[in-house]
Amino acid sequence: MRRRAIVAAVILLPAVTSLLMSSPRNDYSAGREALEDRDYFSAVERFRRALDQNPDYLDALVGMTKAYYRLEEYDEALRYSERARRQGRRNPDVLALAGRVHLGLGAIEEARDLFEQAVEIDPNNVAGRIGLAELAIAQGETARALERYREVVRLDPHERQALLSLALVYETRGEHKTAEDYLQLALEHHRRHPGVHLLAAQYYYRRRDYESSARHAQSTLSLRPAHREALLLLGSVALHRERYDEAIAYMEQLLELRRENPAAWYVKAVAHQEKDETEDALDAFEAALETGPEAETVRYALEQLVLRELDLEDERRAAYAEYHFRRADSLENQNYFRRALASYRRGLRLDPYNRDARVAYADMHRAHGNRATYLQQLEVLSDLGFDDDYITDRIEVSRALLRDSVASRWDIAQFELERDRIQVSLFTIPERNSLLFPVSDLSLTQTLRDELLAYERVNVTGGPRIVPEFAEAFRTAREDGSQYFALVGFVEEERRVTVRAELYLSRTGSELASIHSQREGTARVRSALARVAEGIGERVPLIGRLVERDAGRGIVSLGRLDGLQEDDELVIVRRAAVIPRSGDGGYLFDRDDQVGTFRITAIDDVIAEGEVRREDFVDTISVGDTVVHQEDLTAASETVRMFPPLYRRIRSIQ
After folding, report:
1. Domain with residues 22-239, CATH architecture
2. Distance between CA atoms of 110 and 78, rounded to whole angstroms?
3. What are the residues whose beta carbons fall under 8 Å from the beta carbon of 166, sequence distance 6 or more?
4. Would you tell me the crossing angle of helices 58-70 and 74-87 to the nearest 10 degrees?
5. Would you state the pLDDT for residue 517?
6. 354, 345 Cβ separation under 8 angstroms
7. C-alpha angle 392/326/501, rounded to 5°?
8. Which fold would CATH assign to domain 543-628?
9. Helix (H, G, I), strand (E, B) or coil at 367
10. Which of 41, 306, 409, 505 has the lowest CB atom count within 10 Å?
11. Angle at 129 between CA 125 and CA 135, to 5 degrees
């Protein structure tokens, strides 16, 4: 009997141990630890186990809400927060957490009501007061937010979240001395908290104080070894310090923790790229795309490397281009003409010898009436050696159809004419950006530049550049000789991206427009960039030249691709007598310099024919004079729910 009892006990021991180990309290504790480590997926798993055993376990419901909130799965967070509220109806911390979830969903008034309820129940409730401060941040009311955070610090001078939030708000306002004072207070009171050191590391990274940033990131690792964000930050710092082997070593450490980390592969690729190790860089970029196939930022950086380093005959170019050809076909089927053309152009830059793609690109132009461009693309194929019957027959037919075109009648090689493009300089300020992929600011701005190539009237001067502040962008734009400049900013989240561009007049530095786009879903980065490019293209006013004249008829260097049509009227101004106008855009010129008007009677792809009418009794109109279109320009922005980047930084504080 005793032997049987011992055997039974031995058999039951693992089950009993497992039961004890998986108690709701133990699972909750494990979930809370995972939450502190920012391992939100493990946190969800452990909190769910606790709730499977006790569905009314309030702490686990709160933990599950926080985990989904951090994952930005606000609909799921809302479901658990409502369950938590049923269990803790008068619990101000639960109400404040529900308010943060509603705020994340953009339900401003519901969030305000929940925060105010929390403070009404307990006037000293920190969570509710911090929630009201975050609400002010989300609405761009930083002065009100500062007041509310300072109220929290008066109640509790050691309150970590309020101290760190104050540092971030003052940083955004450009008051760096005050920001660092609050940051130092947080470090003095919470020296053993890894999150405080991490935020300090991120702050100094944005300030380009890479030595201080690295020191605090190392402190984060000493308090919590294998901290993923700290390792990624150390790799980014090493890139900026041109310590590329060190950056690669940090990324190897990070990838040992989890191979499916696109950002780590991205930093590693950039480090190899800077070392001129093209093949290693390509391998790392491809690994980043394999682990994050929707990571458009990675794809753009990869393609920019391919364009620079791989021979035109390299077979890999065709594989990279195929993505854009498939996307162009999809966009064409959805009647997104301009965006489809942009995808074809990007694909053809990668794979210029692709016959079928160039034919498809040409066919799109033909379908939209751009017959001369259609012929031009067929002739490119012929020059590349594609002289089969299909191509030669189409060229012959197209030339016949164009015999009565404006270009043919005036014997003008329209695509060889010098175009009057508006010069735009592009800049980005890294400390204003919030990116999933470190040091990708310039690559994203370069991609916006590529999108702008779709607009005949625009040329990007000098290439996109990183600057520390507005003044540097203003000064550089004037040195470039550009008419306009744009400061571009990016906020990347797991499932959402926001791109903003402030367009300025280079002559005066005055702001002309604020253009922004927020997108979710697949291809969100490209879609947002395309919308902002469209906004810039719409805001940049049209300008051209009178290139030929015969009595009352003439030719101008603007056409169908510029958005003009028959019966449009242009103003003729003496050459070099116009300057871009502040305020509502357009051009400024002396009334005495207006010498005539031009009414379009026939139009080609990039030139137009029309009636030339003099302004005064004496005809002073000359070939080379400027033509402008004084149209009313519409605002190029969208109505979207959009929180400032500061809100995202403050929301990440734990």
Report:
1. Alpha Horseshoe (1.25)
2. 12
3. 146, 149, 150, 153, 179, 182
4. 160
5. 92
6. no
7. 110
8. Thrombin, subunit H (2.40.10)
9. helix
10. 41
11. 150
- The alpha helices in 241-311, defined as continuous H runs, are 244-257, 262-274, 278-291, 296-309
Residue 485: strand pairing partners: 425, 504
Q: Which residues pair with 505 in a beta bridge?
A: 484
What does the pLDDT read at residue 632? 35
Helix (H, G, I), strand (E, B) or coil at 209: coil
C-beta of residue 438 within 8 angstroms of C-beta of residue 239: yes
Angle of helix 278-291 relative to helix 296-309, nearest 10 degrees?
Answer: 160
Dump the DSSP string for 318-341: HHHHHHHHHHHHHHHHTT-HHHHH
Q: Are strands 569-573 and 626-628 parallel, antiparallel or unpaired?
A: antiparallel
**pLDDT beyond 90 at 39:** no
For the domain bounded by 422-541, which CATH number is listed?
3.40.50.10610
The answer on pLDDT for 8 being more than 80 is no
Interior CA angle at 274 toward 287 and 258, to 5°?
A: 30
Q: 74 by DSSP, 3-state: which?
A: helix
Query: pLDDT tens-digit profile of 21-35?
Result: 568 899 999 989 888
Using one digit for the tens of pLDDT, what is the confidence trace for 372-396? 999 999 999 999 999 889 999 999 9
Position with higher pLDDT, 128 vs 618: 128
> Whose structure tokens read 């927020």?
518
Write down the pLDDT at residue 584.
65
SS3 111: helix
Q: Which stretches of 54-175 are DSSP H helices?
A: 58-70, 74-87, 92-104, 108-121, 126-138, 142-155, 160-172
Q: What 8-state DSSP symbol labels residue 541?
A: P
Alpha carbon distance 584, 244 (integer Å): 47
Q: What is the mean pLDDT of residues 35-61?
A: 89
Pairing of strands 422-428, 465-466: parallel
Token representation of residue 448: 């916006």
* Per-residue model confidence as pLDDT tens digits over 200-256: 999 999 888 999 999 999 999 999 998 999 999 999 999 999 999 999 999 999 999
Rounded to the nearest 5°, which phi and psi values hold at 125? -70, 115
CA 247, 248, 250, 254 dihedral sign is positive
For 601-620, what is each residue's pLDDT tens digit? 999 999 999 999 988 778 88
Of 447, 457, 454, 470, the closest CA to residue 424 belongs to 457
Cβ-in-10-Å burial (0-12, 13-18, 19+) of 383 comes to exposed
Domain spans in the chain, listed from the N-terminal domain onward? 22-239, 422-541, 543-628
> In the beta sheet, which residues pair with residue 172?
none
pLDDT at position 22 is 63
Phi, psi angles (nearest 5°) of residue 631: -95, 160
- Cα radius of gyration (the chain): 30
What tokens does 318 get? Answer: 């065709």
